[in-house]
Structures are given as C-alpha cells and as structure tokens.
Design brief:
A hairpin with a 5-residue loop joins strand 1 and strand 2. Among the domains are: 34 residues, no CATH class; 96 residues, Arc Repressor Mutant, subunit A (Orthogonal Bundle). The termini are far apart. It has 190 residues and is mainly α. 23% of the residues are buried. It contains nine helices and two strands.
Length: 190
C-alpha cells in the first residue's frame, strides 16, 4: 500500500526528480548505500543511474559534475532571501566541490554567496538566517552558526524551481492577513 502511494506521488515527475526523492527518503531513513535496498529489485544493476546526484555521493567522493554557486542559484530560482539562504546552504553542503563543502553556514558566508551568485550582499545576513530558522528551514548550530535541516533540504531539492515553495515568495503571513481583512470588509459591506 505504501509503495502504491509513493508511486502515485512520483508519477508525472521527471526521472532525475524521482531519483532525488527516492535517494533523499532512503538517506533520511538511514538506508542510503545499504545493499539491502538494491537486493530484490526487478531492475538489473545496469539500470542504475550512471551519475548519482551530488547530495547522494559520499563526502569524500569526487563530484562527477561541477557547478558554481551562481549556476546553481539560477537553476533553483529562489523567490526570497530566506529561500536564497536555503539554496546557498544546500549548495555548500551537497553540490560544491569537496574542498568547499560546509555543514554549517554563518552570516559572513551567506553574504559571500550573495555577492557571488547575485552580485550583491545582504543588508543583514544574520536576520535572514534567523528568519529561515523561524520558517523551519534551518536549525541553530551554535553561536551565529546555522545548519540547513531536512525541511530546508526538501525545499531546495524538491520544491524549487517551481511556484516558489512559499506562498507569495515568503509573505505567507501577509497574504493570510490580507485574505482575512478582505473577508471582514465583505462581511461589513453586507
């Protein structure tokens, strides 16, 4: 039954996105790299993807593709500063070259990522990262340090690019307030 639900969820997505979803779920359950995953599958080993996504490769393994942060940000097309922070953290954790990999992001590094990818830095990178914590994309990892969590990884890996992932580019509260205000105005008018 669970397999049918997963199949329905993956139906219609392109093969690369399907692989990312499956690998992310396997990794989050602690099954990534386990030989038992492949045991009993109908597909022969030759049908396995030739190039694993960067996030599924071991940290010490050489990347089979190399991207810079500007290219990765343009592909993901974040709609807000908070989404940009998640994209930058994801890039440094999974997509960057092995020598540049980082588990933790600090405001100074986010500023540098902004300069490299967008051509300008943040007004207050720490505030952006604190907002990302409030939205549930990051966890605090110490004084002034932030770590992208599973929700943030999911945003970057599976939601972006697309509708923006967040209602109104990160203004979900304002959109909700506007709807309530409009409903109240309509009720008073009647």
């Amino acid at each position: 039954m669970a397999a049918e639900e997963i199949k329905a969820i993956l139906h219609g997505k392109d093969k690369i996105e399907q692989e990312r979803i499956i690998l992310w779920v396997a990794e989050s359950l602690g099954l990534a790299g386990s030989p038992s995953i492949l045991a009993g599958t109908a597909a022969p080993p030759a049908a396995a993807p030739a190039v694993l996504p960067a996030y599924a490769q071991p940290l010490g393994a050489p990347l089979q593709r190399s991207k810079d942060i500007k290219t990765f940000v343009n592909e993901r097309n974040p709609k807000s500063d908070v989404q940009f922070a998640a994209v930058a953290a994801y890039f440094y954790r999974f997509e960057s070259s092995p020598g540049e990999r980082k588990e933790i992001l600090v405001p100074k590094e986010l500023d540098e990522a902004g300069r490299q990818a967008r051509g300008y830095s943040f007004k207050d990178a720490r505030k952006t990262l604190n907002n990302a914590v409030a939205l549930g994309y990051f966890d605090r990892a110490g004084d002034g340090q932030f770590k992208l969590n599973a929700v943030g990884e999911n945003l970057v890996a599976m939601t972006l690019p697309g509708t923006g992932g967040e209602v109104n580019g990160g203004n979900a509260r304002r959109a909700t307030k506007r709807k309530k205000k409009n409903r109240a105005a309509k009720t008073k008018a009647k």
